[in-house]
Input
Amino acid sequence: MTADVPMTPLVGLPATLRAEFAVWRRSAVAHLPLGGLAFALADCAMFLATGSGKTWKDVLGYQNLWAMFVGPMLTVLLAVAAARIDRGARGGGTWYRPVPPGYRHLSRFTALAVRSLLLNVLGAGTPLLLLGLLSSAQRVPAGRAIEAVLIPWISQLGLLALTLWLARQLHAGAALAAGFVWTVLGVVEAESAAWAVLPFTWLDRGALPVLGTHANGVALETHSALAGASPWPPALLGALLAIPFLLLPRLSLSGTRTAKHRTTAERPTFSPGATAILKTVTEPAPRPAPAKPRLLGAVLGILRGTALTWLCPGAVALVALWLSWHDPETSIQLFTLLILPIGTLVLGLTVWSAAAQGWRAVASRATGTTGPALALTAVTVAIAVAVSLITALLYLTAGIPAGHAWPLALTSATVGAMLTTLTLWLAIRTSQAVAAVVGILGIVFGVLVGGTSMQQTLWPLIPYSWANYLDLHRMSVTLPVSLAALALFTYGITHATRKAAENS
Output
C-alpha cells in the first residue's frame, strides 16, 4: 500500500505577477527604458539647435519621430530582448513550475507593458517637460501632453504582444525583423482610408491628430480630416490587438523528432561481431602533441554558419542594384548614412551572438581570452573594411570621380571599423539589447543630422553620420578620432571578453 503523493497547487496570478516583475528587476530589460531618455535628450538638443521662436505645436511636432518609429522599435526590442534572455536561461526553471501558461504569458506581457509605459514617459514626456520649462510659449497644454505620452503607449500594446508571441516561435532576429516591417507598414499606411481594417495602421494613426503632423512629420493642414479626428479609436484598437496574441498557444515548428529524442527501442542494435568491429574502429588513438591554435581560422569557422554569409554580399548587391538606376553622386548617402551604419550594427551583434555561446569554453583553453578576443575583433573589422572598400569600388565603376572615390573608401572603412567595434564592445560589456538601442538611436540621429542642414553645427556630435563627410576639413577630424576610438574599443573588448567568460 502506497501513500498518495500530494499534488503541488498551481501558482495564482498575483504571485506570478510578483515573480515576473522580480525576474527583470536587474536585467538588461530593466535598463532599456533609459534608451527613451537618451533619445529625449538628443531630441531636445536638436530642437534647440534649429533656432528659437517656436511654439508648443512645434514641440509636439518634434515627437513625430518617437511616435512613428523610435518608440515602436524600442518596444519591439524590449520584447525580443526579454524572450532572448528567457530562452538563453531556459526560463530560469520557471517553465517547469506549476504555473498555468496563460498566467505566465499575461504576467510577462504586463511586466513589459509597464516598462513600455516608462519608455514612453521618458522618450515623449521628457522633451515636453524640459522644453516647456525653457519657454512658456513652448509649454504644451497638460491634456495634450498626457495624450502625447499615453496614445503611443496604448497603440504599441498590440505590437508588444505580437512581438512576444513571435519571439517564442522564431529566432530573435526574425521577430525583430517582423517588428520592423510592421512599424514601417504602419507609417506608410497610417493615413489610408482603409485604416480600420489594417491592424498595423493602429500603431500610428492615433498619434497623428495629437501631434498635429502627417506620418512623415509635416504639419497637418487646418482643413485636414485628421486634425479634428479622435485619437482614441485607433489607439484602443491597437491595444485590443494584444488579446489574440496573448491567447494564441505556442506553435510546434518541428514536425520530426531528432536523434536525441529517440527512445532506446528506436536506437539501432548490432550483432556481437559488428559491435567488436565498431569498438576497434572507435577506440581513441594516441593523443598527439597539441598543435599551435589557429585563432583566425577558428573565428572564421564560427562565423561561417551565420547570416553574415549572405548579409554582406546582399548589402553590396543592394548598392549595385541601386546604382544601376540612380545617379551615384546623389546616392552616396544611401551607403554612408544607412547601409554602412546598419551593417556595422548587424555585424557586431551577429558576431557576438555566434561567439558568446562558447566563450567560457574558449577561456578554459591555454590561449586564454585575449588572443581569441583580438582575433574576433580583427575578423569583424576586416569584414567591415572589405565591404566598405568593395562598395567604394562600385561607386567608382558607376561613374563618380576618383577624387570622390578615395575619400569615400578611406572614410567608410575607418568609420565603419570604429562603429563595428563600438557595437561589439557594447554587446559584450553590457548586452545585445543595449548595443541595439545605441545603434538604432545613433542611426536615426545620423540620418537626421547628416542628411540635413543640421550637419553644419552638429556633425562632430554624431559619429554615425561621420562617413558622410568627405571633405578634407572634416576628414582631418573624423579619421584620427575614429582610429583612436577603434584602438580604445579594441582594448575594451579584450577586457570585456574576460569578464564575459567569468560571468557565463
About this structure: The CA atoms of residues 48 and 134 lie 10 Å apart. Residues 253-271, 273-281 have pLDDT under 50 and may be disordered. The chain has 21 helices and no strands.
